[in-house]
Amino acid sequence: MIAMSAPAVEGAAVSALRSVLGRVQQAAQRSGRLPEQVRVVAVSKTKPVSLIRQLPEDIEWHFIRNLQSNKVKPLLAGVPNLDMVESVDDVKIANRLDRMVASLGRKPLKILVQVNTSGEESKFGVDPSGCVQLVKHVKLECPNLIFSGLMTIGMLDYSSTPENFWTLSNCKAEVCKELGIPEEQCELSMGMSADFEQAIEMGSTNVRIGSTIFGAREYKKDN
């Protein structure tokens, strides 16, 4: 259950989530898949913790933004229900996560390799040409990590959405072929509020929905 502190906001969020799930179901059907084959990750970025309550004890958290090495220990120690890190984009952060999972005695952590499909310098993610090598490193050198698939942010203005999605799909095909991974075991995390239906139709198994559920992001204003 997702609940907000104010009843009106709570009702709006629940109603919005219900609408999103319906749209996901329809998009999944158009892609020839079952709705349960697509995961919806509700992203509450910029929303205060106080707005989200009554969460079940077995909730599974995903970490999405760029992760710095010095933040790995606080993240893993502070979020026992962390199920997946969606933003591993280089060997250094993969190694840091692997060592810290072992040090804390946690169960193996699922990770997605983030790919910079748009070629923008401002975006994090491994270049598509280096995707296979990074996945290979995770699988062979990081026993405490479980490679689960690939992730991309895409362009903020969504002007090249299909190209970004095709690039990630091509990376998946190459990774699976080179490393002998069954394609059904390689997830694709792509698609957000403005384009998640198209992403599902193009193969996404994990969509990240924020503003459509929680409302517009709220950024602090500089004084």
Structure description:
Residues 81-217 form the Alanine racemase N-terminal domain. This is Pyridoxal phosphate homeostasis protein. GO terms for molecular function: pyridoxal phosphate binding. By secondary structure, the protein is of the alpha/beta class. It has seven helices and seven strands; from the N terminus they run H-E-E-H-E-H-E-H-E-H-E-H-E-H. The chain is 38% helix and 15% strand. The strands form two sheets. The chain has a five-stranded parallel sheet with strand order 2-3-4-5-6. It has a two-stranded parallel ribbon with strand order 1-7. Mean pLDDT is 86; it is low at 1-9.
What is the structure about, briefly put?
Pfam families: Ala_racemase_N. This protein has 223 residues and is of the alpha/beta class. The chain has seven helices and seven strands; from the N terminus they run αββαβαβαβαβαβα.
> What does the average pLDDT come to?
86
Uncertain segments of ≥5 residues (pLDDT<50)?
1-9
Write down how many β-strands occur, each being a DSSP E stretch of 2 or more residues.
Answer: 7
Question: Spatial order of the strands in the main sheet?
Answer: 2-3-4-5-6
At the fold tier of CATH, the topology name is TIM Barrel
Q: Beta-strand percentage?
A: 15-25%
- Largest sheet data: 5 strands, parallel
Q: Specify the number of helices.
A: 7
Given helix and strand content, the structural type is: alpha/beta
Task: Tell me the name of the CATH homologous superfamily.
Answer: Alanine racemase
CATH top level class name: Alpha Beta
CATH arch. level architecture = Alpha-Beta Barrel
Roughly what percent helix?
25-40%
- For the termini, the CA-CA separation is 36 Å
Identify the overall geometry. Answer: globular
Q: Count structural domains.
A: 1
Radius of gyration: 17 Å
H/E series: HEEHEHEHEHEHEH
Protein name: Pyridoxal phosphate homeostasis protein
Keywords: Pyridoxal phosphate
Function: Pyridoxal 5'-phosphate (PLP)-binding protein, which may be involved in intracellular homeostatic regulation of pyridoxal 5'-phosphate (PLP), the active form of vitamin B6.
Family: Belongs to the pyridoxal phosphate-binding protein YggS/PROSC family.
